[in-house]
Specification:
Helix content is 29%, strand content 24%. With 595 residues, the protein is of the alpha+beta class. The radius of gyration is 30 Å and the shape is globular.
């Protein structure tokens, strides 16, 4: 018999009755029934119920063992009686009668209960993450993550993609986030950077003549944490293709995403390829965001002209000064009590808006605080444009265009949630396309790249030379699922002269471009194919599939919101000898406040 186990804790069935077996695992639960003591023994594969009679000479040893102690038990498998079968367990038809018992690893007092779904708080859960990972939900999430990554690899290689690994120690990046810097021992005063993404390397792979590349790439960004973003590091399906248009990239990626979400999505409906393609400007107008949740049927309407010149001076005066009015339909809200509308107004004020004006439609008429400012003709136009009928309501926001769009987007989501319009039985995908190449900095007004600086502008060099930069669109795109951005991507700028001009418009001199991106520019001068790609986030994919709201729940060893690893004690001070070796010194942050 094997030293530790003849079977795993999820293996045994009624066909094994009468066999003498050995199992090893953790004590998941104990139940004392007087003359009998039951133990649920757990390993990675499942749970087996074990039982021992009070008359056994080893009973006391079994009884004294604490939860989460690692034990080895040997004994005979017996069928359970019909009234004790546990249909929720794969091993629920049998139990093991313990005849031999050994403690392999004793457990101390537990800071959190493994057999409970109680939330013990971020600090406790992450400080004792090795215990948290034993819990069923988290354990299954991590296994799901592994299976998803394996499936991605299979689907990519089946399409002819080859997996390569790109450097971790590299130079700084223009991706937009802060770099993590690594000091060089051999080159005092100089630093490597951890890659925010393998952007330049994957383009160089295409220039090197490899036609289809991918990797499950680690990326490092010194960013603050969010529910859908880990502080420090994350992983993405990084892919790039040569001799392709934007449609070719979509055609390669859509079957992978559709297949993954169909296989692991718990039978939810998944958008079939081709996924809808929504221009960026249209997304801002109709959904108030470039990350639209298409499960929400509400579409925002621009009703500025309906309100222009009316007696409702709050809107009319603002319109004369350049503001716009957005309408957010609320299907079926007409039957809601006044408190529904009051709560939405309170929410709007908490979000920094003046409120949400509204109209309710009943018996063919518009009613509500501001309905009287619209004549019948304007009311009818509103009903047609926003597809409103009796029993519906519509809310309004008035502000500068970008502010109005963003707030209308938030209101669309809030109203969709409050009216229970957003179902949880679908994965709705879309591409957001035609991003602007440039945007004006909100504070300085200076032009800057709005997305990936290595993207090809639509219209090429001619567009850069002749068009207003704010009118130029780029071959840039995002893939969005249920309101979550999974990936940014682009057709790349593979022409040096276009790259110089694109960066010049963003304020870079020729010398700056050659200094920061010399390796890329040099490669482009030796024959670069048209190429493009994308990089869907692994963490966000798994988060959606696991129906979790926080990246932490699908990450093996996440950091806290303050970017600390409480379990391993990172970050931590370096000792003096290490700093000297790296030619570094630490300047302490000056204390503030009165002494």
């Amino acid at each position: 018999m094997h030293e530790y186990r003849t079977h795993r804790c999820g293996d045994l069935r009624k066909e094994n009755a009468g066999e003498k077996v050995r199992l090893s695992g953790w004590i998941h639960r104990k139940r004392d029934h007087g003359n009998l003591l039951f133990i649920d023994l757990r390993d990675h594969y499942g749970i087996t119920q074990c039982v021992i009679d009070v008359s056994s000479p080893i009973f006391q040893s079994v009884e004294n063992a604490r939860l989460e102690t690692v034990i080895r038990v040997t004994g005979e498998i017996v069928k359970r009686s019909d009234d004790t079968i546990n249909a929720s367990l794969s091993t629920g038809d049998i139990e093991l009668n313990i005849s031999e018992f050994d403690v392999l690893g004793e457990a101390g007092n537990l800071p959190l209960q493994v057999n409970s779904d109680d939330d013990y708080g971020e600090e406790t859960r992450l400080r004792y993450r090795f215990l948290d990972l034993r819990r069923d939900r988290i354990h299954k999430n991590i296994v799901l993550r592994s299976r998803v990554i394996s499936d991605i690899r299979r689907r990519m290689t089946d399409q002819g993609f080859i997996e390569f690994q790109t450097p971790i120690l590299t130079s700084t990046s223009p991706e937009g986030a802060r770099d993590f810097l690594v000091p060089s021992r051999l080159h005092p005063g100089e630093f490597y950077a951890l890659p925010q993404a393998p952007q330049q390397f994957k383009q160089l792979i295409m220039i090197a003549g490899f036609d289809r590349y991918f990797q499950i790439a680690p990326c490092f960004r010194d960013e603050d944490a969010r529910a859908d973003r880990s502080p420090g590091e994350f992983y993405q399906l990084d892919m790039e293709m040569s001799f392709v248009s934007q449609d070719d990239v979509f055609d390669a990626l859509e079957p992978v995403l559709h297949g993954i979400f169909s296989e692991f999505g718990n039978k939810k409906v998944v958008t079939s390829p081709p996924f809808p393609r929504i221009p960026y400007d249209e997304a801002l107008l109709k959904y108030g965001t470039d990350k639209p949740d298409l499960r929400n049927p509400i579409e925002i309407e621009d009703v500025t002209e309906i309100w222009r010149g009316t007696e409702f001076k709050i809107f009319a005066s603002a319109i004369d000064k350049g503001s716009v009015v957005r309408a957010i339909p609320a299907p079926g809200a007409g039957s809601k009590p006044r408190s529904f509308f009051d709560k939405l107004n309170d929410w709007a004020r908490a979000e920094g808006a003046g409120g949400l004006g509204y109209i309710v439609f009943e018996k063919g008429e518009g009613k509500g605080p501001i309905a009287r400012f619209l004549d019948d003709e304007r009311i009818n136009k509103l009903k047609v444009q926003a597809d409103l009928k009796d029993g519906d309501a519509v809310f309004f926001t008035c502000a500068a265009e970008l502010t109005a769009s963003q707030f209308a987007g938030k209101a669309r989501t809030r109203i969709g949630v409050d009216l229970e319009l957003i179902t949880d039985d679908r994965f709705d995908f879309c591409w957001v396309v035609d991003y602007p190449m440039y945007e004006a900095d909100h504070h300085t007004g200076e032009l800057q790249f709005s997305h990936n600086p290595f993207s090809m502008p639509q219209g090429g060099l001619e567009a850069l030379e002749k068009l207003d930069p704010l009118e130029i669109k780029a071959y840039q795109y995002d893939i969005v699922c249920n309101g979550i951005e999974l990936s940014s991507g682009a057709i790349r700028n593979h022409r040096p002269e276009i790259m110089y001009k694109a960066f010049q418009i963003a304020g870079y001199t020729t010398e700056e471009v050659e200094t920061r991106f010399g390796g890329m520019l040099n490669a482009l001068k030796y024959g670069a194919p048209p190429h493009g790609g994308s990089a869907p986030g692994i963490d966000r994919i798994v988060m959606l599939l696991a129906n979790e709201e926080n990246i932490r729940e699908i990450t093996m060893f996440p950091m806290t919101q303050q970017a600390q690893d409480l379990m391993m004690g990172a970050p931590a001070p370096a000792d003096r000898s290490h700093l000297d070796e790296l030619h570094l010194d630490v300047i302490k942050k000056p204390e503030t406040g009165d002494n």
